[in-house]
Amino acid sequence: MTKTSLTGGTQAGSDADAADALGAIAAAWSIGGPDYLPYRITLLAKLLDRCTTRLLQASSGLSVAEWRVLAQLAMASPDSASVRQLAEQAWVDRAEVSRAAASLERRGHVERRENPKDRRSPQLFCSDKGLALYHRVAPSRTEFHRALTQLLGPGEAQQMEAALLTLARQCVDELQSEPEISPLEAGYEKGPAQRAGPPR
Predict the structure, then answer these.
(1) Which domain holds residue 143?
(2) Which is nearest to 154 in space by CA: 12, 2, 6?
(3) Does the residue 82 lie in any domain?
(4) pLDDT number for residue 12
(5) What does the pLDDT read at residue 32?
(6) Please, what is the end-to-end C-alpha distance for the chain in angstroms?
(7) Which regions of the chain are under pLDDT 70?
(8) What global pTM score does this model have?
(9) How many domains does the structure of the chain reveal?
């Protein structure tokens, strides 16, 4: 088979090339071959999470889940968000968000206040300490994404964005066709944290 190089040309490719480039993950990467592209996207997402975990631990001592909660709240500040809103925006389990928020609260990065409209759903705010941490770490997260994107050749980033959007739209369409779909599955929560944009 052939593959596109980072400079936009084509060159011969094989499973042996993947083994040389990917090491321990090569066997998983080769499952299904190119026809299993969505599976490879899942593997890439796991690799990105592992890289993020290592970088966050070195720069802030935060876990990926903690960083995502902190980033969402910081970008929404001074507005608040509930655990449900944060979970639905990030498409993760509420329990994961709840644990991360509790850990951040213990360290003074997040404040929890009673919700007068629903006492079962307290509102979370980013504290001044949390905002300071976010602004210290955010530039390195931006640089991480920029450095990866710059590995792609001219036009490749735009092509990848268009391709990912095509796949995402198909998945959303399939989810919306279900007779009973939860807001978490649909990903359409109208809270302030969602309007602030995705965590990086």
Answers:
(1) 37-196
(2) 6
(3) yes
(4) 39
(5) 86
(6) 34
(7) 1-20, 178-200
(8) 0.73
(9) 1
